[in-house]
Design a protein that fits this description.
The protein has about 55 residues and is mainly beta. The chain contains one helix and four strands, in the order ββββα. β3 and β4 form a beta hairpin.
Length: about 55
């Protein structure tokens, strides 16, 4: 999965606020994403995020 700033991603499990959509706000070895429901920002390694998101393919 290749991430770009501004991209919308969907996680398999919803956040604590029950939203499961996020916007990518920083990329690199660690990806920073912002929750659409509560606005919380979370940073995690790319490999970890790859496992948590729903991928189109
Ligand atoms: Zn949230």
């Amino acid at each position: 999965m290749r991430y770009q700033v501004g991209m919308i991603i969907t996680t398999k499990k919803p956040h604590v606020c029950k939203s499961n959509t996020w916007t990518v706000i920083r990329t690199g070895a660690d990806i920073k994403i912002k929750c659409h429901g509560c606005g919380r920002e979370v940073m995690m390694p790319k490999v970890e995020l790859d496992k948590k998101i729903k991928q189109d393919k």
